[in-house]
Amino acid sequence: MARPIIAIVGRPNVGKSTVFNRMIGDRLAIVEDMPGVTRDRLYGIGEWLNREYSVIDTGGIEIEGENEILRSVRMQAELAIEEADVIVFMADAKAGLTSSDEEIAQILYRSGKPVVLAVNKVDNLKRQDEIFEFYALGFGDPIAISGSHGIGIGDLLEACANHFPEDVEDEYGDEVIKVALIGRPNVGKSSLVNAILGEERVIVSNVAGTTRDAIDTPFEKDDQKYVIIDTAGMRKRGKVYENMEKYSVMRAMKAIERADVILIVINGEEGIIEQDKHIAGYAHEAGKAAVFVVNKWDAVEKDEKTLQHFTQKIRDHFLFMTYAPILFVSAKTTQRLNRLLPLVNQVAEQHAIRIQTHVLNDVISDAVALNSPPTDKGRRMRINYATQVAVRPPAFVLFVNDPELMHFSYERYLENKIRAAFGFEGTPLRIFTRKKSSDE
Ligand code: GDP
Ligand code: GDP
Q1: Domain segments of the chain: what residues?
Q2: pLDDT of the residue at 417
Q3: 177-351 in CATH: which number?
């Protein structure tokens, strides 16, 4: 199910990144533990009353020149209007209402997008009167918050949740594999799509999906139905900020949310850069199946070691995604493109596997017998029972005597054992540890 996307917009220094961190909450800590995940976060996933959402802080888009603050804030607002489901417009109670706030308000107002007005730095609830002047912005009741004190964040999330799109059922149906190609501009995403659609026996439906302003491409091959989810790079705007990292990440977020299988396209000619990691990291956190597609392989000067070296480079850069298979292709010569859809089918299938409980428990018992669970001050973790609670991505719950005793490294060990037993190629796994209730 697609997570709604919340974008935070506002002048520099109003506290966007502080509040952003509050909105991701404890998820942040979990993710930062993962090796290879960058600390410079552009987006995060949070949860409010059992509904997950994605949040992006649009701040930090820097541009040169006069009036740069105004221009960059305007850019943030435009980006948020295009890609977010709800916009949090943030102002600063200590600074009061400024003309830049009014400028932003105008842009947001015209867009017709849901806007929640948050007035930050109300550190003391007795100072609620500081928010009154912000009624003038025309977005209804301002919500008083304090990012640094963690005040009002629940109210803010509740106000956002009121605007979340309804939990619509999957727009294409379970039997259709939804594929998104993501990657930096010019890696060859559109060329790949054209090459896939031009393959033999591919039947392109002439009814393009047009849900939520997107232009998706449904097609069929060998009796399997697919939809290529519209992504950023394919709608070329030629705007100055098309190349900006945040912009392309945010554009990719929406497509990733709507897809099952993410093809992370890398330019074989150029190698891997930080931006590739941000986009891939989002696919991972969103729990999607993934394949690395190294394109333009025709243009790479090769010897017998090149493929192996490039593979190693991907593994080193994306330590957190060793499960994702890698395919070296050329959209230009169509080299190995015939392997792409079979690989998509394969990871889509793995993403949806359900393991029988007794089989899973046999694997966990064997793993525990081979390598005992962690201890703390003489107490050892005991795993009583394991069960799979979800697919897409596969999620497992381990019922234990004390979840505090679980260790990241032991969780990794169990994950590896589960993968060794069942495969799960191309799919991230989720493992949760819960306390066994006393009556069980
Ligand atoms: P951004 O530029 O909008 O992302 O703002 P930051 O999150 O970087 O915050 C700018 C400054 O405001 C920092 O010095 C923060 O510590 C401070 N700040 C953020 N939230 C609050 C708050 O709720 N109260 C107060 N007093 N200061 C805050
Ligand atoms: P996008 O921005 O990711 O959609 O990239 P495009 O599909 O527009 O491709 C960008 C450029 O790379 C174009 O000039 C393509 O002709 C070129 N290109 C795409 N795929 C390949 C490939 O496999 N080999 C070579 N040599 N060039 C390619």
Answers
A1: 5-161, 177-351, 357-435
A2: 97
A3: 3.40.50.300
From 186, 243, 300, mutation site for ligand 2 pocket: most ligand atoms within 8 A of C-beta: 186
The pLDDT tens digits for 207-245 are 555 444 557 889 999 999 999 987 644 444 445 455 566
Query: 297 C-alpha vs ligand 2 centroid, how far in Å?
Result: 11
Cα–Cα dist 83/247, whole Å: 10
Q: Find the angle CA(83)-CA(84)-CA(87) to the nearest 5 degrees.
A: 140
Report DSSP state, residue 187.
S
CATH 2.40.50.100 given to domain 357-435: no
Residue 374: pLDDT over 70: yes
Does residue 40 register a pLDDT over 80?
no
Q: CATH topology for 5-161?
A: Rossmann fold (3.40.50)
Cβ-based neighbour number of residue 340 at 10 Å: 20
User: How far is CA 13 from its chain centroid?
Assistant: 26
Pairing type for strands 51-57 and 143-144 reads unpaired
Atom of ligand 1 lying closest to residue 120 CA: 23
The pLDDT tens digits for 197-211 are 998 888 887 655 544
CA distance linking residue 361 with residue 417, whole number of Å: 12
Kindly give the distance from the C-alpha atom of residue 404 to the centroid of ligand 1, in angstroms, as a whole number.
Answer: 33
Q: Is the CB of 330 under 6 A from ligand 2?
A: yes
- The enclosing H or E element of 344 equals helix 340-351
- Select from 199, 246, 190 the least CA-distant residue to 222: 199
Confidence band for 404, pLDDT divided at 50, 70 and 90: very high
**Pair of tokens at residue 374:** 């962690």
CA distance 268 to 296: 6
pLDDT-wise least confident of 138-147, 268-277, 295-304, 411-420: 268-277
Residues 6+ apart with CB under 8 A from 277: 36, 38, 317, 318
In this chain, the answer to whether the domains covering 5-161 and 357-435 adopt an identical fold is no
Atom 6 in ligand 2: which residue has the minimum CA distance? 188
pLDDT by residue (tens digit) across 1-23?
689 999 999 988 899 988 998 99
Instruction: Identify which of 395, 399, 401 has the alpha carbon closest to the alpha carbon of residue 375.
Output: 401
Question: Where is mean pLDDT largest: 118-132, 203-217, 247-261?
Answer: 118-132
Substitution candidate for ligand 2 out of 187, 191, 230, 300 with most atoms within 8 A of CB: 191
